[in-house]
Amino acid sequence: MQLHELKPAVGSRKDRKRKGRGVASGNGKTAGRGHKGQNARSGGGVRPGFEGGQMPIFRRLPKRGFTNPNRTEYAVVNLETLNRFEDGTEVTSALLIETGVVKNERDGIKILGNGTLERKLTVKASKFSAAAKDAIEAAGGSTEVV
């Protein structure tokens, strides 16, 4: 057998549906568009959110709230993740990025108290949850807000 003799498995390749090419094709005449109406016309159809003239839901419901452009968003790191570091390590944002724990530092790093910490670490971060701070100090480590 040579490369030019290769053929796809029977039934693995299908011809595309050619719309409007005769009744025998199964997609002839109206080409799957039904009879008349806006959707049957070329360029027909309604815009997203249009409800046939009824007052659409996005106009029936009131506007609410806003998105604060100055919001601070922290990269989150849980205690259980910090167990990968050796005892006595100084955990900084640079180290977390270098080891791939955090991909994007955003506006700083926040340490949360999910999981248990079995290492004695010095952790430097932008913020700590109360539970995380207690757990780090209980393990013999220290926290520092930077």
From TrEMBL:
UniProt key word RNA-binding: yes
Domain Large ribosomal subunit protein uL15/eL18: start-end pairs: 76-143
GO BP: any one term: translation
Source taxon at top rank: Bacteria
GO annotations of cellular component type: cytosolic large ribosomal subunit
Alphabetical list of PROSITE patterns matching this protein: RIBOSOMAL_L15 (PS00475)
Biased segments, Gly residues type: 42-52
GO molecular function: rRNA binding; structural constituent of ribosome
Region entry Disordered, spans: 1-65
Keywords, sorted A to Z: Ribonucleoprotein, Ribosomal protein, RNA-binding, rRNA-binding
PANTHER family found in the cross-reference section: 50S RIBOSOMAL PROTEIN L15, LARGE RIBOSOMAL SUBUNIT PROTEIN UL15M
Record's function text: Binds to the 23S rRNA.
Subunit structure as annotated in this protein's UniProt entry: Part of the 50S ribosomal subunit.
Family from the record: Belongs to the universal ribosomal protein uL15 family.
Entry-linked HAMAP family: Ribosomal_uL15
Protein name as catalogued: Large ribosomal subunit protein uL15
Lineage: Bacteria, Bacillati, Bacillota, Bacilli, Bacillales
